Amino acid sequence: MTANDKIRCFVSLDLSDEIIRYAKSIQNNLISQNLFQGKYTKPTNIHLTLKFLGELPPQKIDEVNDLLQQVKFTPFNITISDLGVFSRRHIRIIWLKVSGADQLQKQIDTALQGHFHPEERFMGHITIVRVKKAFDKNLLLDYLDNYTITPKEILVSEFRLKQSILTPEGPIYKTIETFKKS
Fold first, then answer.
1. Which domain range does residue 33 map to?
2. Entry pTM
3. Which partner for 11 in 22, 51, 78, 80 could form a disulfide, CB atoms 3.0-4.6 Å apart?
4. Does residue 1 lie within any of the structural domains?
5. What is the DSSP string of 1-41?
6. 164 domain-assigned
7. pLDDT by residue (tens digit) across 66-75?
8. What string of DSSP letters covers 60-111?
9. CATH code, domain carrying 29
């Protein structure tokens, strides 16, 4: 890697095996309905993005690490509670709603203030499908609107700075640094 190479980065929460299995079961239910053509998020890539940082020069990574070390938090719970889409007019993403991470996300924004734009509207979600084509949009929306989600709660005690390597087979995520509770 040269000094001119850039590293695509984001800050995220990794999720428990239970949540990943639950997301996979929802994906399997969606597959069985055959309502759209799309790309399912691989179980190894299921996460909650707290902040996308973009393409960073390697020398900026240490600075971001130092800034994120300043984020102090005690363990807290997040809840997966709903299924939704971006957008209802042209469905592109099917996601699971995540609540409870807003405070940590704001602390991350504050730590990175002056270096990155703050999130205008953080909406915690886990992308489970990228929809290429809905065969019948109204039927798909009706199915999703009536899908029953069993709320799941998990304890958060760390977050990560990750690298995203884009490949033809899909992204590969690598942890750069883990930040633990204070």
1. 7-180
2. 0.92
3. 51
4. no
5. --TT--EEEEEEEE--HHHHHHHHHHHHHHHHHT-EEEEEP
6. yes
7. 999 999 999 9
8. HHHHHHHHHHT-----EEEEEEEEEEE-SSS--EEEEEEES-HHHHHHHHHH
9. 3.90.1140.10
